[in-house]
Design a protein that fits this description.
The protein is an alpha+beta fold. The chain has one domain: TolB, C-terminal domain (Neuraminidase). The chain contains 7 helices and 24 strands. The strands form 6 sheets. A 4-stranded antiparallel beta sheet has the order 3-2-1-24, with helices on one face. Strands 4-5-6-7 form a 4-stranded antiparallel beta sheet, with no helix packed on it. The two termini are 26 Å apart. This is Galactose oxidase/kelch beta-propeller. Pfam families: F-box.
């Protein structure tokens, strides 16, 4: 196999499911290097392998769910785990890694079951999010809103595989950035000052694209921050969407490597793409899934990656929402499953694509958790939601 041209080798490897691909890494140094270190291979393989959708309460979840996009079942909420004593927060999903909090802050790869424990005590923002009074609903909501200020970025180039956690700090027209490489928290010297006042969009997660984190503001402009260079800027794009029944949804189109904004009415969903970092242009319209208006409380887009668009609808007299998935390649809607939810905006959704990537840590700084620690039990349970038995 060493003599095969790369395009033929890729055709073989792309046909392997993840468990077999992991085994292939152990057979040959050259193949291991190609699988592990070539970002083009990782990117193409990740696009071909099936993705899943994590969903959980925004306020600290005692139930965490994960459902593969390849699975369609109108009654199923997906694989689930119950955490009795420690609530779970997910802050980000990037390159097959999850940033989550269960009594401690972790970065974990659910496929390989490898993880790192991170110190969050040096972060002013992170401590506010996971602390506080769990009986004070106003405080809980405020902390859930702050969680949208946390960005998770994984650098996957050939020579380095590392991650950064970036918290954006909003102060009127000035934005500052709190950064961690997994060991220490510090305030970046970089700030952005805007000439106009427009708040960051509430309940909107940042989008990581081309090595840069992007936070959306209410006027359609974007605060962009590169965790590696620590350069920040305001993208002065203004969004003038048409008629809409929902708050715009901010996402990455992984197929076309573009930032997108999605709006919609009960009839049509509109996908806008940011062109040349200046103009939001309508690039696609999708006929919305049919919903019974007389029983409808609300509906909204909860996930989009260029291949799948996911819509949740809430009906009267039920805490169970129906989730629909639109396949952009097949141009079809299907009922994806159901989701327990009691409020209009009480859940977080994270699209997750498994990968073999992991970021090594300094053995001298490594934090060890006992195998019988309750946090370990819960972390393993959440990672186990990614089914690798197929």
């Amino acid at each position: 196999m060493n003599d095969l041209p790369f395009h033929l080798l890729d055709n073989i490897l792309f046909r392997l499911e993840l468990k077999s691909l992991a085994m292939m890494r152990c057979t040959n140094r050259s193949i291991n290097s190609h699988i592990s270190d070539d970002p083009d291979f990782e990117s193409e393989y990740s696009f071909r392998v099936g993705s899943s959708l994590f969903h959980l309460s925004s306020f600290g979840a005692h139930y965490v769910f994960c459902k593969p996009f390849s699975s369609y079942d109108s009654t199923s909420t997906g694989n689930e785990v119950q955490l009795f004593k420690e609530p779970c927060y997910i802050f980000g999903s990037c390159s097959g890694l999850l940033l989550l909090y269960i009594g401690d802050l972790f970065v974990a790869n659910p496929l390989t079951k490898r993880f790192r424990v991170l110190d969050h005590s040096g972060s002013k923002l992170m401590s506010k999010i996971v602390g506080g009074d769990r009986n004070d609903r106003d405080d809980i909501i405020a902390r859930a809103e702050r969680a949208m200020c946390v960005g998770f970025a994984v650098n996957r180039n050939r020579t380095t595989k590392r991650f950064k956690i970036v918290c954006i700090l909003e102060m009127e027209t000035v934005y500052a950035f709190e950064i961690s490489d997994g060991y220490f928290w510090r305030l970046s010297e970089t700030t952005v000052t805007t000439t106009s006042k427009s708040d960051l969009t509430v309940w909107m997660k940042p989008v990581y694209l081309d090595g840069t984190l992007h936070w959306l503001r209410n006027d359609g402009s974007i605060i962009a921050f590169n965790p590696e260079t620590e350069q920040a800027r305001l993208i002065s794009s203004i969004f003038h969407g048409g008629e809409t029944d929902m708050k715009p949804f901010f996402a990455e189109d992984k197929k076309n490597n573009r930032l997108t904004l999605i709006t919609g009415t009960k009839e049509n969903i509109s996908v806008y793409t940011l062109i040349e970092n200046s103009k939001w242009t309508l690039t696609k319209q999708i006929k919305n899934v049919s919903m019974e208006e007389r029983n409808l409380v609300c509906w909204n887009v909860v996930a989009y990656d260029g291949k799948y668009l996911v819509v949740r609808e809430m009906k009267y007299n039920t805490f169970k929402g129906v989730v629909h998935a639109y396949d952009t390649e097949a141009n079809t809607w299907r009922v994806f499953g159901s989701i327990w939810c009691s409020f209009k905006s009480d859940r977080d959704y994270y699209s997750f694509t498994p990968s073999l990537i992991f970021v090594e840590e300094d053995e001298h700084k490594k934090v060890i958790i006992a195998s019988n620690d309750l946090r370990m039990s819960y972390l393993n349970a959440v990672m186990g939601l990614i089914d690798t038995t197929d």
